[in-house]
What we know:
By secondary structure, the protein is mainly alpha-helical.
Amino acid sequence: MSSPTIPVSNPQTQSPVATPAFRAFLSRISTSIRQGFSQRRPWSELIDRNYLARPDSLSEAATRIRKNLSYFKVNYITLLALILAFSLLSHPLSLIVLLSLLASWIFLYLFRPSDQPLVILGRSFSERETLGILVVSTTVVIFLTSVGSLLISASMVGFALVCAHGAFRVPEDLFLDDQEPASAGLLSFLGGPASSAAVAARV
């Protein structure tokens, strides 16, 4: 009598979206955004006409910009993000190309386990080859297509608006007392646990 066959399950590759590192990365981003918006100043304070006045000199304008950037940094980042979003939404093809490029970096390199080679159309690509293809693709998309000019023009418009507001917004005494770490806020997820999560995914 033959012995019963023991079923053997073939382990399947775990999707990058389902990895703990990717979930930790998304959680860190969500937490950082919420913390950043909690530091946002009231928009009514940003556009209060009672504190708008033309600077007397370039040095005064530079001082105002520096203090306003420190105080309204979350509002300014939000304004820049809205301008970039509006520019991309008004050019759907550029938005699709940029999202595809971002997804390629996330799923083909950052959160793909290093022990699993990339296989496309039956050809296996090493980690170095994958990185080279992504770098070349990013360079082509940013510098040789309309995506780069769109991002640069939108960023320049945003920075111009921020600098104009910062130069004409008269600072108050509370600016001098409100000192916060430069790394806090919306962009803090770029370091710390977020970068650790990406590194962990490569191991």
